[in-house]
Design brief:
This protein is an alpha/beta fold. 31% of the residues lie in helices and 20% in strands. It has one domain: Rossmann fold. It is flat, with a radius of gyration of 12 Å.
């Protein structure tokens, strides 16, 4: 992960989604794209998820990649 403002946010519904999403982060890192990966559950932590997404543009985030397994409510 870069120390500059993340251009891409990689969001997952749970820690178990990391095995699928880690390739996304590795690819972004390979190409030098500033990113951050977060676990935010739309069901377990809806306020945190909403707050994070609402503030994303203000942090410099241009793209959000979101994924969730099982009941994908993210």
């Amino acid at each position: 992960m870069s120390t500059t403002a993340p251009l891409v946010a990689v969001l997952m519904g749970s820690k178990s989604d990391w095995e699928v999403m880690k390739t996304t982060v590795e690819t972004l890192n390979k190409f030098g794209v500033a990113n951050e990966a977060r676990v935010l559950s739309a069901h377990r932590t809806p306020k945190e998820a909403t707050d994070y997404i609402s503030a994303a543009a203000g942090r410099g985030t241009k793209v959000i990649i979101a994924a969730a397994g099982g009941a994908a409510h993210l």
